[in-house]
Amino acid sequence: MPSDPLFIIVILAVLAVVVVLMVGLGGFAGGGAFNKRNGNKIMRLRIIAQFIAVLLILGYIYFRKDAG
Which NCBIfam families match (predicted)? Predict the structure, then answer.
C-alpha cells in the first residue's frame, strides 16, 4: 500500500487539509488583523482541499476494489 502512487497522493491530500485546518485554527485563536484579513479565505481553502481529498479517497477505493 505505501508504495502505491495513488495512496501516497491521498495521504498528501489529507495532510494538506490538516495543515490548512491548523493554520485556520491558529489564526482564529490568535484573532487580530491576520484573522480578519485571511480567516474566510483559509476556511474556503480548507473546504476545497477537503473536497479534493474526499474525491481522491473515493477514487482510491473505486480503483483498488478490484485489485484486492
Answer: twin_helix
Per-residue CA distances from 21 to 35, 40, 49, 56, 64 (Å): 13, 12, 10, 18, 28
% helix, strand, coil for the chain, step of 5: 85, 0, 15
Domain coverage including residue 43: 37-67
1 and 20 housed in the same domain:
yes
Backbone angles phi, psi at 3, to 5 degrees: -90, -5
Cell of 47: 473546504
pLDDT digits (tens, 9 = 90+) for 2-56: 788 999 999 999 999 999 999 999 988 888 888 889 889 999 999 999 999 999 9
